[in-house]
Amino acid sequence: MGEMPFYREFQGLDPKVKRLVTIVIVVSLWIPFVIHFVFKVPLGDKDINNPIVIALWVLVGLGIPLFIINGGMETLVTTTGIKVRQYWIFGTTIKYDKIKRVTKTEIKFKDVGGYGYRYSRKLGRCFVLHEGEALTFELEGHKKVTISTENRDRLLEAIKMFLPEKVFREGEEKARRVKFV
């Protein structure tokens, strides 16, 4: 059983956008499928009755809409660290004892090349679901991790509740080293 989160934030696409994208994908993929296989109307001059083509068509026609509908990004603040998970695939845990500095950041898609799991020289590894508010964590070894958030101040307050407590247990030298900007 996993650790109980102190703070949880889930970011997902707007439900209207999800519906629109899903409808467009389903219609664009499934109408030709139905026309060809149900009504036996050929699509072009090539035969597409190959089982591999049919399997890929079904996987893409179901997979992409399900991915869009269920996708999102989850940020958890626990007693041991900050856990980020994006679209079930990409994720990381930032341990409190590795954090040297936390900085409020503004993310622009042009800076990171879109949304999703990205890398930027300026911001390090980025977990981005929307433009705007973010937190950048500078870690030991000059590594950075940036997380977009819908409520930066609440996320920062949740982190501050755990980090100073851990820092003070490990000594005053460590307490001076951690900076909140």
Describe the structure.
Helix 1 (15-37) runs antiparallel to helix 2. This protein has 181 residues and is of the alpha+beta class. It has helices spanning 15-37, 51-70, 109-112, 152-170, 172-177; strands spanning 7-11, 73-77, 81-86, 90-95, 99-107, 116-120, 124-128, 132-139, 143-148, 179-180. 40% of the residues lie in helices and 31% in strands. The chain contains five helices and ten strands; from the N terminus they run βααββββαββββααβ. Strands 6-7-9-8-5-10 form a six-stranded mixed sheet. It has a four-stranded antiparallel sheet with strand order 1-2-3-4, with helices on one face. The two termini are 35 Å apart. The longest helix is centred in the N-terminal third of the chain and has 23 residues, at 15-37. The protein has two domains: 13-70, no CATH class; 73-180, Pleckstrin-homology domain (PH domain)/Phosphotyrosine-binding domain (PTB) (PH-domain like), CATH 2.30.29.30.
- Rg over CA atoms: 22 Å
How many distinct beta strands?
A: 10
Largest sheet: 6 strands, mixed
CATH architecture heading of the largest domain:
Roll
Give the count of helical stretches: 5
Strand content: 25-35%
User: Uncertain runs with pLDDT below 50, 5 residues or more?
Assistant: 165-176
What would the average pLDDT be, to the nearest integer?
A: 80
Q: How does the helix and strand content classify structurally?
A: alpha+beta
Shape: elongated
The total domain count is 2
Helix content: 25-40%
Assembly state (oligomeric): single chain
Give the structure's gist in a few sentences.
With 181 residues, this protein is an alpha+beta fold. The chain has helices at 15-37, 51-70, 109-112, 152-170, 172-177, and strands at residues 7-11, 73-77, 81-86, 90-95, 99-107, 116-120, 124-128, 132-139, 143-148, 179-180.
